[in-house]
Amino acid sequence: MDSVDPDSQTPYYQQLYSILRRQIDDGVWRPGDRLPSEAELGQTYDLSRITVRQAFEMLVNDGLIYRRRGSGSYVAVPTIQQGLNRIISFTDDMRQRGLHPGTRVISTRLEAASADVASRLNVEPGTEVALLERLRLADGEPMSVEISTLVHSRCPGVLDSDYAEIPLRRALADRYGIHLERAAQEIRAVPADMALALQLGVAMRAPLFYIQRVSFSGEGVPVEYLRVYHRGDRYVLYNELRG
Amino acid sequence: MDSVDPDSQTPYYQQLYSILRRQIDDGVWRPGDRLPSEAELGQTYDLSRITVRQAFEMLVNDGLIYRRRGSGSYVAVPTIQQGLNRIISFTDDMRQRGLHPGTRVISTRLEAASADVASRLNVEPGTEVALLERLRLADGEPMSVEISTLVHSRCPGVLDSDYAEIPLRRALADRYGIHLERAAQEIRAVPADMALALQLGVAMRAPLFYIQRVSFSGEGVPVEYLRVYHRGDRYVLYNELRG
DNA sequence: TAGTGGTCTAGACCACAAA
DNA sequence: TTGTGGTCTAGACCACTAA
User: Which of B57, B186, B209 sits opposite A189 (nearest CB)?
Assistant: First the structure.
């Protein structure tokens, strides 16, 4: 995985992109670090400069790196704008907002998938799914309620970990080799029902963001169905648009 | 404007990108149309194939075109996903949702910019701004309230047009040569106050999306400060994320 | 001054779509 | 079979950064 395979069907530049991306994910290069130059990588992997540039361009498009002429290529520091473009952990999200994140696990359980859940995760209704319900805190105050649903056979025993401490994404990557590469989501503004109002410490019918997100692995398999309720009075979404 | 200037400071591929982009904006090429091939454009503008490809890649990144090997490059058909990535007109937004759009102008007026508005539009407080307040309908039912604020000196007489019929963006482009190329926005979930509840036909405190958007011209000048309230029970935001 | 990324070229071979 | 876009190379010159 740390070299380019000439016999692969995958183009060189995509192979190099995957290598660099994995290294960034794994913390080999950290935000602010300078990556090797185009020339260095060309020598290391025996690739032409243009091919190396193609891999870098993909990373730039992902917002993972930025480049400065005369200086080098650097791992990007996450920004609050990325919340609507990249899959980002609650912890990182809160830190970018200058808030101190916290987590309480409300409940975990196995159950049979409803028709709705089953269709989103592309399984038969009744398939065993793992549920993880967490209350998210910012500076000690409730911010969000998150309900994660996973197909249990794809990650058996996933509920054994303590997700007050470990990010779910990291557990999926480390224990099952599942990397979330893509997601699609719907965002609604909804009123808080009684249960949510109590959990989040807001009034009944207070406005909440309700986000339904399906995340896919690199192979295109739907891995997680996430439902998040954010407090409308505390949570703001930011993003940039192009004409 | 329809040829590449070798003496310009702007790279060829960016010049070509601007040319093609303007042509798409102006409807020279419509969604689904096939664009000229790389070879054709290379001959037309006397550019190498790689330079033409760079321009095409920018258009692909913008989501404006897609390319099919062996077939050609085509103008993309807008999708509902683009609402959080591209500046899109209410009319097109509703059509993508399969709804019939309508518009009523609530009021237009000139006034002095408040401190908040002034700072967003990068002018002095008290500067004369033009306000345009519209009620947006979908299938005849209220969907959104939009309040556009523009610096009047940048588009004198802008309020003379009938914005129940003409898109504001088109008027800015046609009458003042102002093209909105970039925007930044904040999205909140807020309760409807009495005035909004009446305008939108919802209950007091019903959840609404509240979007504040500043749009910038190609020169980086803030042109429009837009405030939109969408009905939470009818409006859904969609988007895709990358890992 | 040395090293970096930005732009641009000419040319090659390939996979794929359409006629 | 022809034309399309996809990948890859070697090489050149430039603008900019940092030492």
Answer: B209
Do the chains contact at B207 and A213, CB–CB below 8 Å?
Answer: no
Chain A: nearest CA to B227, how far in angstroms? 14
**Residue A180 distance to chain B (closest CA, Å):** 6
CATH class of B83-231: alpha beta
So where are chain A's domains?
12-75, 87-231
What's domain B12-75's architecture? Orthogonal Bundle (1.10)
Query: Quick one: closest CA in A to B180, which residue?
Result: A243
Q: What global pTM score does this model have?
A: 0.90
Q: Which nt is closest to the CA of A69, judged by C1'? A: C5
pLDDT in tens, chain B (243 residues): 577 788 888 899 999 999 998 899 888 999 999 999 999 999 999 999 999 999 999 999 988 999 999 999 999 988 887 779 889 999 989 999 999 999 999 999 999 999 999 999 999 999 999 999 999 999 999 999 999 999 999 999 999 999 998 899 989 988 998 988 889 999 999 999 999 999 999 999 999 999 999 999 877 899 999 999 999 999 999 999 987
The CATH number of domain A87-231, selected from 3.30.750.24, 3.40.1410.10, 3.40.718.10, 3.40.309.10:
3.40.1410.10
Q: CA nearest B82 in A: which residue?
A: A241
The three state secondary structure string of chain A is CCCCCCCCCCCHHHHHHHHHHHHHHCCCCCCCCECCCHHHHHHHHCCCHHHHHHHHHHHHHCCCEEEECCCEEEECCCCHHHHHCECCCHHHHHHHCCCCEEEEEEEEEEEECCHHHHHHHCCCCCCEEEEEEEEEEECCEEEEEEEEEEEHHHCCCHHHCCCCCCCHHHHHHHHHCCCEEEEEEEEEEEECCHHHHHHHCCCCCCEEEEEEEEEEECCCCEEEEEEEEEECCCCCEEEEEEC
